[in-house]
Specification:
The chain is 8% helix and 30% strand. The chain is mainly beta. The chain folds into 2 domains: 116 residues, no CATH class; 34 residues, no CATH class. Strands 1, 2, 3, 4 and 5 form a 5-stranded mixed sheet that branches.
Length: 152
């Protein structure tokens, strides 16, 4: 799937290469299952310093679909534990673009570091401590702890 086909939303992450998808689609007993592997790379910001980095992603997934009629006509249907990962499908086709987008969003890393020793941003001036040695004073004492300063 080409990069431009999938929008990851406004959280600042974007695809940096086309999405490779290998999937099997099986249908039985009114349930359609899409099972496969997604392989791509995502452009995302480092959690500490906000520098953009490219992170490879490769993961397996399973998505299950049932016909809309299975949920009843009133729009209300009691869902059992094994049905929590089912989605409704209208007609005979599954839109794989939506499946891939959903799986990518679910598998984006929560915390990404450009390197293990990333120093992050300076709390005072906002400078990237990996690029500059800022001269901000770190001697400022939190007023809540000022009374303890004179204890020895």
């Amino acid at each position: 799937m080409p990069v431009g086909e999938i929008d990851l939303g406004g959280d600042g992450s974007s695809l940096s290469q086309d999405v490779g998808l290998q999937a099997d689609v099986r249908s039985s007993a009114g349930i359609t299952a899409v099972e496969g592997t997604i392989n791509t790379a995502v452009d995302i910001a480092c959690t500490r310093c906000l520098e953009r980095i490219t992170v490879p992603l490769k993961f397996d997934f399973v998505s299950r679909f049932v016909a809309t009629e299975s949920f009843g006509t009133s729009g209300e249907h009691e869902v059992h534990g094994e049905e929590l990962d089912y989605d409704a499908i209208e007609g005979e086709q599954v839109d794989l673009t939506n499946v891939v987008r959903e799986q990518l969003l679910l598998n984006l890393p929560q915390q990404v570091l450009c390197s293990e020793d990333c120093r992050g941003l300076c709390e005072k001036c906002g400078g990237n401590r990996n690029l500059i040695d800022c001269s901000c004073e770190d001697d400022e004492l939190d007023p809540r702890w000022a009374a303890l300063k004179n204890l020895k």
